[in-house]
């Protein structure tokens, strides 16, 4: 079989926060499963990823924490790198866009476009915060989307509907730095003529889809962009943090992150082969026509990998001798939600990967996510489902089959693979299924149908359990030991095949099974009916998957409900004119008594200087009638009269809520101030 040369990338995560389960289901776990499968198949494949360290989210996080962007990216790059390793991600390199190799690569692309006259310098109106004295990048501005009405849209892009627009079209803009309404101020930037490539891009997408079958969600994203028409996009921005624009006399401008971040795939590949001592070998993956490039992403990154990055590569290829390949496929996944809601760091809803792996083994998470990937629509992670798949599938089906087979072979065949004898119908049918399974699963993985592939993997384990039960080796052991030996021989070869085909999904458990088998993986399609020969010595078994108790899951669900932040109440805003209508006057309390049938209310007589009034105030739990007489307080004097417990109240005393038990403290006025004086 012909071996393929394959380049795989996963979207570069922002280094401003921890990786959570939703990230894994989108761009990382599906890619890792595909890469591990291809390695077992014997293909020449490299897997590239790294941190995106120049996005505005990094500067926002740094501003909030009052530290430098460098401190933020160092913290989260290392944290996420470690979390990925614990999860079992098999990157060939996990690089960083803050490295010199990336800055140089990005500047080379910009300079090439600039020198060929492709970039156009334009003056444009950008949001400017007059209080902060700075131009505001898109994520520093929030307003209402002019297309869908989303009130949390960025200055030039809406994450909810995916629309791009001119900043001047954003409604009700606010600066995230000062809360002020920013002004539009002229600045100058270089623009990439994306529209110039629309016809070529449409042809490229159509051809790739016809040859390799792109996912419908990806095609629909592309189609919507093409219908709207591609427009020029700024490739620079006014910011200190980032890749500096490589032109003399240009200050305080960096390359826009959308332009330089995708080039991180190329710079990371360069770094990889520099570390391997073969600095030019990266070209054989990026600039060799027969290399297959697959870009794994979440749906929020579709446009960058199907339109913008390909357009940049086309532009380079038009004027340079060394030609880059374009993505052959971009199998984007939808979103994974958590217990029915979107992951939200601000509300504390969800769980980080590192936090999860401190509680449970990586393989249980990998399997649960893989079995429920959001390949065609959004899906949810539920703690109960995680428990069910761990206990009911990994432990009761796969783990049970491995354990019962090993227990039997060590007890009755001295831990040695017994010789296979005459085959009965049940044996032949099982061997046919066993031999067919690797190819069936491979066909699904080749089409990026990971969820279906995982289903077939577990189906083989189910079939193994059924075969063991139906063959009844505990019976044939006494009646026909040759038949018993045949059953156990086949069961052990099923286990070998399960260890191999499950390796992309649960690699840590696969290693354990191969250790128990005292064997090593073979090439993917060579695993099957006759992998283990008779007489092969096995090692002792170990429990693969521990069951999760109900109490553990119940505690996690309870904790989740307690830790979710409730939405903060935002007080209704009033204008200064509305406030001026409120008349606050000093009053002296001349008499006070309890209101019958109420433990909260007091009836007060007050002197406003020019008139006397009666008030009903809910302060009985805080004050006795006697201690109020003679105090001067502040009251709302023009409040419409109301009746409480049948008693008319002509105003309201101002008091402060000081505790959770209902007690308040009235606002006392200095004795020297006469009743009737107005507060201003």
Overview in brief:
The protein is 41% helix and 16% strand. The protein has 21 helices and 23 strands.
Low-confidence blocks of residues: 563-570
Q: How many individual β-strands?
A: 23
Task: State the fourth-level CATH superfamily of the largest domain.
Answer: Isoleucyl-tRNA Synthetase, Domain 1
Total count of helical runs of at least 4 residues: 21
Q: Describe the strand arrangement of the main beta sheet, using strand numbers.
A: 17-16-15-18-21
Shape: flat
CATH-derived architecture of the largest domain: Orthogonal Bundle
Write a structural description.
The structure is a single chain. The protein is an alpha+beta fold and 680 residues long. It has four domains: 5-96 and 256-335, HUPs (Rossmann fold, 3-Layer(aba) Sandwich); 108-253, Methionyl-trna Synthetase, domain 2; 336-570, Isoleucyl-tRNA Synthetase, Domain 1 (Orthogonal Bundle); 576-666, Nucleic acid-binding proteins (OB fold (Dihydrolipoamide Acetyltransferase, E2P)), CATH 2.40.50. The chain is 41% helix and 16% strand. It contains 21 helices and 23 strands. The strands form eight sheets. Strands 17-16-15-18-21 form a five-stranded antiparallel β-sheet. Helix 6 (216-228) crosses helix 10 (302-319) and helix 15 (450-471) runs antiparallel to helix 17. The protein is flat, with a radius of gyration of 34 Å. The model is unreliable at 563-570 (pLDDT under 50).
């Amino acid at each position: 079989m012909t071996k393929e040369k394959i380049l795989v990338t996963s979207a570069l995560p922002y280094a401003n926060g921890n990786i959570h389960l939703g990230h894994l289901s989108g761009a990382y776990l599906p890619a890792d499963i595909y890469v591990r499968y291809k390695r077992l198949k014997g293909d020449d494949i490299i897997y590239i990823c790294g941190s995106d360290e120049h996005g505005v989210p990094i500067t926002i996080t740094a501003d909030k924490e009052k530290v430098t962007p460098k401190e933020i990216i160092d913290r989260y790059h290392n944290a996420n790198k470690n979390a990925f390793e614990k999860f079992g991600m098999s990157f060939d390199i996990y690089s960083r866009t803050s490295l010199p190799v990336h800055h140089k690569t990005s500047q080379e692309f910009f300079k090439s476009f600039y020198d060929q006259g492709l970039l156009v310098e334009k003056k444009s109106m950008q949001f400017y915060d007059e209080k902060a004295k700075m131009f505001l990048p898109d994520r520093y501005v929030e307003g209402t989307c002019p297309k869908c009405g989303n009130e949390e849209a960025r200055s030039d892009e809406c994450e909810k509907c995916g629309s791009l627009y001119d900043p001047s079209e954003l409604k009700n803009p606010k600066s995230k730095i000062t809360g002020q309404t920013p002004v539009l101020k002229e600045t100058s930037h270089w623009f990439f003529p994306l529209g110039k490539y629309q016809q070529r891009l449409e042809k490229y997408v159509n051809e790739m889809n016809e040859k390799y079958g792109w996912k419908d969600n990806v095609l629909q994203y592309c189609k919507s962009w093409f219908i709207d028409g591609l427009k020029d996009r700024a490739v620079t921005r006014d910011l200190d943090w980032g890749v500096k624009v490589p032109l003399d006399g240009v200050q305080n401008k960096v390359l826009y992150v959308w332009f330089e971040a995708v080039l991180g795939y190329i710079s990371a590949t360069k770094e990889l082969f520099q570390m391997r001592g073969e600095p030019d070998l990266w070209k054989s993956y990026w600039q060799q026509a027969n290399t297959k490039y697959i870009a794994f992403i979440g749906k929020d990154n579709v446009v960058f990998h199907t339109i913008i990055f390909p357009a940049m590569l086309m532009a380079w290829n038009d004027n340079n001798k060394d030609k880059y390949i374009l993505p052959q496929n971009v199998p984007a996944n939808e979103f994974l939600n958590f217990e029915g809601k979107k992951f939200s760091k601000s509300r504390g809803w969800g769980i980080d990967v590192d936090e999860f792996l401190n509680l449970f083994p990586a393989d249980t998470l990998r399997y649960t996510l893989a079995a429920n990937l959001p390949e065609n629509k959004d899906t949810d992670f539920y703690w109960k489902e995680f428990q069910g798949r761990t206990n009911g599938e990994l432990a009761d089906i796969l783990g049970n089959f491995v354990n019962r087979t090993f227990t039997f072979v060590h007890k009755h065949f001295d831990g040695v693979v017994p010789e296979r004898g005459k085959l009965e119908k049940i044996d032949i049918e099982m061997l046919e299924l066993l031999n067919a399974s690797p190819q069936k699963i491979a066909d699904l993985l080749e089409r990026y149908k990971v969820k279906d592939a995982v289903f077939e993997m577990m189906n083989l384990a189910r079939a193994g359990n059924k075969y063991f039960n139906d063959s009844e080796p505990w019976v044939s052991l006494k009646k026909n030991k040759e038949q018993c030996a045949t059953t156990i021989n086949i069961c052990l070869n099923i286990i070998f095949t399960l260890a191999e085909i499950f390796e992309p999904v649960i690699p840590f458990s696969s290693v354990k099974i191969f250790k128990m088998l005292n064997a090593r993986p073979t090439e993917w399609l060579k695993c099957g009916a006759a992998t283990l020969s008779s007489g092969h010595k096995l090692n002792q078994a170990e429990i693969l998957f521990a069951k999760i108790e109900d109490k553990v899951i119940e505690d996690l669900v309870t904790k989740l409900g307690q830790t979710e932040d409730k939405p903060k109440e935002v007080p209704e805003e009033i204008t200064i004119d509305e406030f001026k209508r409120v008349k606050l006057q000093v009053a002296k309390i001349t008499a006070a008594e309890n209101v019958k049938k109420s433990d909260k209310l007091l009836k007060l007589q007050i002197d406003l200087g020019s008139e006397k009034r009666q008030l009903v105030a809910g302060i009985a739990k805080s004050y006795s009638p006697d201690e109020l007489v003679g105090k001067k307080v502040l009251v709302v004097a023009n409040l419409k009269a109301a009746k409480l417990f049948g008693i008319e109240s002509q105003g309201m005393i101002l008091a402060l809520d000081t505790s959770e038990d209902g007690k308040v403290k009235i606002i006392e006025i200095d004795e020297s101030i006469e009743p009737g004086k107005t507060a201003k």
